[in-house]
Amino acid sequence: MEISGALEIFASRGVELVEHFHRLHLEGHDRNEIAKRTGLGESWVGSVLALGKVLFGPAEASVLRERSIATAQRNLLGIEVLRAINAAVRSLSKHAEVGREELRLELYDWAEGRSVAEVKAHATSRVRELNGNEHTPWRRSVRISATADAGGQRHLHLSLADTHMANVESSLHRQARRLRRKDGALSHSQAMADAAFSLLTSDHNKEEGKRGAMVIVPLTGARHVGSGMLATTDGAQIHFSKLADAILRDQGIALCYGENAETGAPEPVGILPIEPIHDNSGRFANNTQRLVAQADQVLCAHPECHRRAINCEMHHVQAASKSGESSQENLVAVCATHHARNDDDPTKPKNGRYEREPHTGRVGHKPLGSDEIITNDLPPTQNSGRVIANRMFEEFRHHKEWQSLAKRRIQQLITSSTR
């Protein structure tokens, strides 16, 4: 197909494109797969799938919907026009005098021959008119880009009601003008950014405590038997803190890993100077477990997610409703978006589950209908505690001198600790 032909499909056959993407989704392909397959962005694909659900999913106002589809096809509306209209219609209040499908039909009819910008402006204005001031649904939100762009910058998008944002804008403008009087080299946009940063990171908003270094310590020469205790092959035991203290002193926080006594997979044993890793009888993860999970994973457990584990929710692999414990190995960090899609009940599969890979202990996503656990292997995870521990224990298993040295060292420490 010629390039011009492909562009014409985007510009005039939006309904057919939406139906195609909807069909892919019904065949079991999720947003990430479709994005990879088509070379399109995930957020763009997500918006088209949402539109597909509206146009081709179950609907009460099916007659209106069929008329809307026919109108869009007759008027040769492109995919971007349909997306712009859907974004506006979704903001229509349930108290408005016109229903969503009625408004969609009205806008599809109006959009004939008009540009995306014109349609977007008109649809937004029409929804605001119908909502009025009393029933405007304020959907406050903050979105922060998960990764830095090529220039090393991340981006923040704040959504507030018009009047609230006007107050924020006015305050930032005032502070920006003061900053520019002090430094004439600043552009107004730069000064606005500096003012926002100063406001958000002021002492009043800072959490107590400072960030410190965390060192990953592979405790070789013994295996973890639980409660922070390490055992050698001859049965002698030593607490992880004594061994770690002999290896590492005054270097910040130390997260210690040992090989599980049954599976041999590396697992967190304890964290210094806090406490050993132990089961938690409560429903929710405690602060120690959160800290360990953040270092253990670095990122969300989903294979293609860039969100940092420190900003994630703590998920029970075996759901608490299914008698799952709040133990470290049953807790994984998953962002709110992917957490909501997890199948808590494995007997009712829909989207897949987050589970641990038995040989490495790494957490990953088990897709629907698959036995494979796919881990997040994005670059930041290569510096996660679990990946480092697996790498070092694998090297240890093939290094005879290291094994001999570790065994002698741990025996010496056990002997000295029992005197």
Summarize this structure as a short list of keywords or feature phrases.
3 domains; six-stranded mixed beta sheet; three-stranded antiparallel beta sheet; 15 helices; 15% strand; HNH_nuc; HNH nuclease domain-containing protein
Topology:
Elements: H1 3-12, H2 14-26, H3 31-38, H4 42-56, H5 62-74, H6 79-89, H7 100-110, H8 116-131, E1 141-144, E2 156-159, H9 162-182, H10 188-200, E3 214-226, E4 229-231, E5 237-239, H11 240-247, E6 253-260, E7 266-272, E8 275-276, H12 287-297, E9 313-316, E10 331-334, H13 336-339, E11 353-356, E12 363-366, E13 374-375, H14 385-397, H15 400-417
Helix pairs in contact: 2-4, 2-6, 3-4, 5-7, 6-7, 6-8, 9-10
What does this structure look like?
With 419 residues, the protein is α+β, with helices and mostly antiparallel strands. The chain has 3 domains: 3-131, no CATH class; 138-182, no CATH class; 214-400, no CATH class. The chain is 44% helix and 15% strand. The strands form 4 sheets. A 6-stranded mixed sheet has the order 5-4-3-6-7-8. Helix 6 runs parallel beside helix 8.
First-residue to last-residue Cα separation: 82 Å
Order of helices and strands: HHHHHHHHEEHHEEEHEEEHEEHEEEHH
Overall structural domain count: 3
Ranges where pLDDT stays below 50 over 5 or more residues in a row are none
- Sheet with most strands: 6 strands, mixed
Mean pLDDT: 83
